[in-house]
């Protein structure tokens, strides 16, 4: 997106020191540049493909390739080992291709030398496409077309989360902005009236309007009444969309609104803990999702206290990264008390000139957390079992008709043995395994990564809730 859309995040301490060894990594990324939601079908653009490929290439150079500054201990540097990497994305025309493009940068073609096989009769078989590497991606079939919607709600049919997000449209804060910005949005009608009707041009559709104009600014050589789109106007369009979407994704007094961030938190812990319990044999996790997941996690992890820019919508190809590392000897696999976690974020495409930055989680001042503190902080809001999810969401049908027996939040302390597992994380693991058995693998990924759409009336239907914009014919 345009540079003025989101102010650059303030640089904090460097990513790592020479004494550290990276043992595991979790990357959660947004998709690349795409076409506008107001003109479906929404598709990944060539620019978007280039963005995620560029980010994947940087992560390769940083964490995978031989000689990289923070190479993951034991990671295969050239030819991917499937057991070392877990990748997932919704089956969507934007998110799935973005994940595939990122993986192509992470593990590029290996060339004719490595990309060949000699058969028993002496015949040499070359891998197609110059040694192109195929990395499986777990898919969510029920999430097809999620990027076609103008309004993302990370509730995955969580009844109370849907109600909570809809409550924003009745709040004094929303009503004040709706009224105070009416004239501003009316002034934009000459720019957007080919797609938005007059009764759709308001703060109620702040994100749809921003998205439509943002895509036009990137891709269109001419825009109707473009003289109206001054730098200050574009910044205000973006800022209002930031406010609109953050309030739909998170509310401090009603945490259920951020159910996506809560389930993501459980997955982050579970995946990194799997790296520990396997002795580093499963070190790399990559997941693609929409901006709502970012924003709900930002709120829950109190990242907004570290930098106010975390109230904003992450740009295309933005990444959240969790490094699991140690300052002890990496072999044998370190004891749990020797493990630490660092959170990093990068707004937009990652490259050598713009890299992820470490930020403190949970309102703390230190960017490095012990594994124990990381797990306890995450468990303060993580939702990692079916029964927790059903109880929190108030759902009683479908998979919630017979919830599992894990009744409450996961708690406990970290064990002290080498490669040990905390009771807290054991609770998450057990809950997640139970959840996978009951819901199936695809449904699990949908719960922790996919973004569902709250059912909404269309604009002009007389509802007092959010709308999905329907372009005029």
Automatic annotation (TrEMBL):
It holds the Pfam family His_Phos_2. Belongs to the histidine acid phosphatase family. This is Phosphoglycerate mutase-like protein. The chain crosses the membrane at residues 424-449. The keyword Membrane applies. It comes from the Eukaryota. The keyword Isomerase does not apply. Residues 1-18 form the signal peptide. Keywords: Membrane, Signal, Transmembrane, Transmembrane helix. GO terms for molecular function: phosphatase activity. InterPro entries: His_Pase_clade-2, His_PPase_superfam, Histidine_acid_phosphatase.
């Amino acid at each position: 997106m345009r540079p003025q859309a989101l102010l650059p995040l303030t640089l904090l301490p460097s990513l790592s020191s020479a004494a550290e060894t990276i043992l595991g990594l979790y990357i959660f990324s947004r998709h690349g540049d795409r076409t506008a939601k107001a003109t479906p079908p929404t598709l990944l653009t060539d620019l978007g493909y280039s963005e995620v490929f560029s980010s994947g290439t940087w992560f390769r150079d940083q964490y995978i390739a031989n000689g990289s500054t923070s190479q993951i201990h034991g990671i295969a540097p050239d030819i991917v080992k499937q057991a070392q990497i877990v990748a997932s994305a919704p089956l969507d025309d934007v998110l799935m291709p973005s994940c595939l493009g990122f993986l192509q940068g992470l593990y590029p073609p290996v060339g004719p030398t490595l990309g060949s096989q000699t058969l028993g009769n002496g015949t040499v078989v070359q891998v197609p496409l110059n040694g192109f590497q195929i990395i499986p991606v777990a898919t969510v079939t029920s999430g097809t077309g999620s990027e076609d919607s103008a309004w993302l709600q990370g509730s995955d049919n969580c009844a109370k989360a849907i109600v909570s997000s809809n409550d924003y449209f009745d709040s004094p804060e929303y009503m004040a902005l709706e009224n105070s910005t009416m004239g501003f949005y009316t002034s934009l009608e000459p720019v957007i009236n080919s797609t938005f009707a007059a009764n759709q041009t308001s703060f109620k559709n702040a994100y749809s309007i921003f998205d439509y104009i943002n895509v036009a600014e990137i891709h269109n050589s001419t825009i109707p009444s473009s003289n109206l789109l001054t730098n200050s106007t574009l910044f205000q369009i973006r800022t209002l969309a930031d406010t609109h979407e953050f309030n739909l994704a998170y509310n401090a007094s009603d945490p259920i609104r951020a159910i996506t961030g809560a389930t993501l938190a459980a997955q982050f812990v579970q995946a990194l803990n799997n790296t520990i319990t396997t002795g580093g044999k499963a070190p790399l996790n990559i997941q693609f999702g929409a901006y709502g997941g970012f924003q709900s996690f930002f709120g829950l992890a109190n990242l907004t206290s570290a930098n106010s820019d975390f109230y904003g919508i992450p740009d295309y190809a933005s990444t959240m990264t969790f490094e699991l590392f140690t300052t002890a000897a990496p072999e044998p696999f370190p004891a749990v008390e020797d493990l630490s976690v660092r959170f990093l974020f990068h707004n937009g495409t990652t490259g050598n000139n713009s890299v992820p930055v470490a930020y403190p989680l949970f309102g703390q001042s230190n960017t490095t957390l012990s594994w124990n503190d990381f797990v306890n902080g995450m468990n303060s809001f993580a939702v990692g079992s079916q029964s927790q999810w059903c109880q929190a969401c108030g759902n009683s049908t479908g998979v919630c008709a017979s919830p599992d027996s894990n009744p409450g939040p996961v708690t406990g302390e970290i064990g002290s043995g080498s490669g040990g597992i905390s009771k807290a994380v054991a609770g998450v693991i057990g809950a997640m395994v139970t959840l996978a058995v009951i819901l199936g693998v695809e449904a699990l990924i949908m719960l922790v990564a996919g973004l569902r759409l709250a059912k909404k009336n269309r604009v002009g239907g007389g509802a007092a809730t959010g709308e999905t914009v329907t372009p005029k014919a």
